[in-house]
Amino acid sequence: MIRSFGDKTTERLWRRDRVPSIDSRIHTTALRKLRQVGAAESLDDLRLPPGNRLEALKGDRAGQHSIRINDQWRICFLWTAAGPEEVEIVDHH
User: Fold this and answer.
1) Could you report the per-residue pLDDT of 39-66, keeping only the tens digit for each?
2) N or C: which end of the chain has fewer CB within 10 A?
3) Cα–Cα distance, 86 to 78 (Å, whole number)
4) Closest CA to 29 of 58, 2, 8, 51
């Protein structure tokens, strides 16, 4: 279960509200990926499907992980013993 969101935009998409700041072409995929993050019982659960491309982040996002929505957009989050926290959709470019 997603414990918290890193921004209101991601939370609005999770609640299926209209989110004009996120490309409408990725809304369906982003929501599916958010559900995967929310259903994960361990970080390893997000390794599949391979297209998620789960990775540990570095730099100013050290301690976070991400999965890909597509080549441009990512879902970034902190993984804790209680599950994913500070979940946010980020434009990678």
Assistant:
1) 999 999 999 999 999 999 999 999 999 9
2) C
3) 6
4) 51
